[in-house]
Design brief:
By secondary structure, the chain is an alpha/beta fold. 39% of the residues lie in helices and 21% in strands.
Length: 131
């Protein structure tokens, strides 16, 4: 059952579940980044307030995103994720992308800027992303 179809009483539990897994993935990505020689491939995903999802700057559907995440999993890649209006309740499309990240156990780096020039650290602080 997708997040939008969850009864309102169960939705906070689903969001908490997803956020716990994201925290674990972020920790894993940090460990990966510190031990990496070559940079792993990265998919830049933007979840817009309108519900549109961009993959590497271009409008995309979930089939293409899932295919890319499957590829990234094989190559030990990562996802950089940006969500417009991050303080608001996430749209179902944004939650579906997060669920795919969890499904493929991909490291994820959250960004507060649409150009992915920053990342949100484990304490929720925006840090400049090193080129």
């Amino acid at each position: 059952m997708d997040a939008a179809a969850q009864p309102p009483a169960k939705r906070p539990k689903l969001v908490a579940y997803v956020m716990r897994h994201l925290a674990a993935i972020i920790v894993g990505m940090t460990a990966l980044a510190s031990s990496a020689g070559a940079e792993p491939p990265v998919a830049r995903v933007s979840a817009l307030a309108s519900g549109k999802i961009l993959l590497n700057g271009k409008p995309s559907d979930f089939k293409a995103i899932e295919k890319e995440f499957e590829r990234l999993q094989k190559l030990k890649g990562a996802v950089w994720y940006y969500r417009e209006n991050a303080q608001a309740e996430p749209r179902p499309e944004a939650m579906a992308v997060v669920e795919l990240v969890v499904k493929y156990k991909l490291p994820v780096s959250m960004s507060s800027k649409p150009d992915f020039s920053d990342y949100i650290d484990a304490n929720g602080i925006s840090r400049l992303r090193k080129p």
